[in-house]
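re: that complex we talked abt at group meeting.

here r the seqs, copy pasted straight from the sheet so there may be weird spacing, ignore it
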Amino acid sequence: MIDRRRDSFFVVALRALALGVVGLAFAWRVALPEGLAAAGIGAALGVFFGQRLGESRYRTVLVLATAALMVAAGVTGRALLVGSTGLVVAFGIERALVVADVVQYGLGLAGASAFLRAAAVRVRTLVVLEVAAAGAALASLVGAHRDGAINRPMELADWAWARGEDPAVLLVWLGAAATVVLVVLLLGERRARRAPLHIAAVVGLLALLLAGIRVFGLPAPPAAGDLGLTGKPQAGRPEGKANARGQRGGRSDQLTDLPFRDEYSSSGGDAPVAVILLHDDYSPPSAAYYFRQATFSQYNGHRLVAPTRSDVDRDLLPSFPTDPVTVAEPPPSDGRARVATTVALLVDHLKPFALESPLSAKPAQNPDPARFRRAYRVSSQSIAQPYEALLGHAAGEPSWSADVLRHYTETPPDPRYGALADEIVQGLVPQYAEDPLAKALAIKDWLDENGTYSRRSRHAEAQDPTADFLFGDRTGYCVHFAHAATYLYRSVGVPARVASGYAVGEQNRAGGSSIMVRGKEAHAWPEIHLSGVGWLVVDIQPHRSLEPPDGPPDRDLQRTLGEMARGQHRPEDKRHEEGRGRGRELVRAASRVLQALGRALGPVALGVLVLLYAIKLYRRFLAFRLVGPVARPRLAYRAALDRLSEVGATRFRGETREAFAARIEGLSPTLVRLTWAHLAVFFGSPGGVPERDHIGRMPGAVGREVRRRVPAWRWALGLVNPVSWLQSR
Amino acid sequence: MMMEQLDAKPLNPSGAPPSSLAGAREVADRLRARLAAAVLGRDEVIELMLVALLADGHVLLEDYPGSGKTTLAKALGDAIVDDLPDDDIPSFRRIQFTPDLLPSDVTGVSIFDAPTSTFHFRRGPVFAYVLLADEINRTSPKVQSAMLEAMAEKQVTVDNVTHKLDELFFVIATQNPLDLAGTYPLPVAQLDRFLFKLRMEHISRDAELEVLATWQTRLEGPGDEPRVTRTQVIESRRVTRASVVLAAPVRECLVDIARTLRLDKRVLQGASTRALVLALPALQARAMLHGRDFASAEDIAVLAPRIFGHRIELAPGVDDPDVVISECAAGPIEKLARASLRG
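got the structure back, here u go
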């Protein structure tokens, strides 16, 4: 084989194109339009220059220093141009700035790309530097869309919205394009003819992937929170042994208990997991919307778990509604307001959640199946009175059996709970000394005052983590507070339980009618039951916190998602519509064509794939059987070559067929005979074709020999490769 | 490979001339066996030597003293039985070229025969089947040209009388690359008379050990290996030329290689058309040696560097003609290989 030292011009040009795009991405946010153009052109030209430099005979140090000098010249050139008064006077400030930008980005990026290319030419492995630089530039361009912020980056998202498109789709396309760019950079091919083939293969795979998105939906944002609401594997440290003992092989996807964790992680918590549409105006007296998903009321000797009996906690939605469902034990209507909501889930959840307290639910039309996992409409009966107005209700429910009451008031045997609770309620004025809500609020106030919120704590290892928390440093997160409060409520005879779900502060709604639920808003809270009121959230809000305060949600994203959930996303920016003339028409026509192309790409890729397989099978099994004796040796030989190229045994350029056959005789002895027969026909041997009768069986024999001699995975990989036959030569 | 297709008839020991390719191959195999027994580790050179013999060409060996060239040439002469004793031409002759050699020392000379008062031509050493021309670059150009004329024309002219050499006449010339002082290197135009210029590299360690182990037995000569007759060799040449097919794509490939060579920047002077004509019987001979009745791309790939190597002049700074030729041949050979799949 002859190894040509130089990369073909085509491959270099492709690289130049790719790095030109990267240069544009790099300068996108900072450069003037002229500087931007200079950046793109400079980066592309730098590739050619770097290639020449790398292939030159100069020392590597010299080569790299030359490129580095270009970068330095670009940077200092700007300082000189802007700094020297003479030039600014001569050009005028504006033009001097443009020139400075062009010099800085054009020369600087040309130097940078020349540096990368030359380094990669000299040391083949350093091509990763190039790829890393390209990846970083492209990622910085679109990185803002992390955590499900599909409205970012604004330049892209607004453009997409204006055309009524989901920007996430655009981002996915952008990612696909970036992949192609990176693959082009990685391309190790020195022969120009293979490069398009491999790029086409990558493009085809991406097209299949994108077609898959149409079928399976967009990738969901990462679900955060360790409360196990979504059933995703939970981050953070595994639980302490003491707690693990209390479970009966509890699987995290069953929602049977709330784990105590020493490290409660909420990374990626900014990603939205659901959108709630409020169809009635409702402002909760607790200043937060509580979306209840599960409850934990049964004390199992260690902690609270989901009840195993069926006559308690019957106020939850039993499952995702496929038909209208009603709650078994609806809340009383006194003091509560009817609130209709629609929940659109962006992430799969184990169980439905609903604004407290749900009455009934029914499925709703999924507004955008590519984005939302499912949607359902809930009718809730939510507390509409301030807490003071709820004073004077008795604890529990008269209809409850003693058994149920005991279920809701059972506490750990530790006497300290009762002592502490009694001490706290002692401070109540006599007027409210016996009021259950007043007692609960007193306990809440005490915990608010004395507890410290922290996602890091050291209680999970203890026998009773709640006691360790409550009678220790009182530092923990919602699960600790919810358990402590519930035990204290129960200690003073108030039926209580822990509920989990999402709690969204009212201020986050910001006056709109949609609420974006983020992963970090997963929450566990205590609830008490009052006669005539039902389950009432009496949540703890510790005044001290070791965590940095949470930022407000992205209002723009909230509104956008709300509109999407309503299925009424419309072009917002009418300015695009106001554009006049043929330019606008052209752009619209072009975008229609592009959209049609995009839609066609998946099926076309599939069609091409099927065609490739059909050709492969035809050449492999049929072609040589369908022809007469003259063409048979040639087609049989080709079929054998196909089988060999599947496992990577191909003829080098300039290698004769005999030499190839001799080279791989160890892999396939039969090929030597088949080659002879093929050449005898081609070169017009007067002696005729040897082994005329066996030729039809030889491709199969070659296949068997190959299969016996190469590893199974190699063979299988070759078998499924649709383009292997293109490499037969 | 595929020997079955040529039915190997036993060769008539009395020396009936071969009438088929199989017979020609049998002749070649006998020669090969005798040469291989005489010189160890030189299979490639032996094969090329046989190709040259059967293609009616001559061979120039460039090598170090003591690399076995004389042994090889002698063994070849030995292997050929003179079945025409009347013509008085021996199987093997050797000329050691020196600066003071005269053309008549090579071709022969007319001497006055006193009893009959006539000039009588006394044949020089060129009258032989196999001639070893040792260190041909050490003699004067005058002698060289006489020698080369004999090689080209297969005749010598002395005193205006033309004397025909034997039809088999096969020259193995050597030149020593080490001593350059006092030599007259052959110009490219003269080198053109040789079909191949072969460089004999040092043989492998195993072969060298084998040489030392068997030197005594080999002193007695190959002995029992069967020999061939002059007529058989000549007849093999004829049969090969007549029966091995040279397909049009093969000729195209050869021409394309020559044209690529002429266009290559590293080549000052490309191969001549005569070189291409001379290449054809060589391709046929190699195909026959490998049991084929058709010349193939493999023959071109192997023989092209040998045929063109000494016929081209390289630009200053380019050392290895083999690399240049292999690179220039790759394109046309690839084209030929692809054409064969297209059908």
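couple things i noticed - Residues 241-565 of chain A form one domain. The longest strand of chain A covers residues 336-345.
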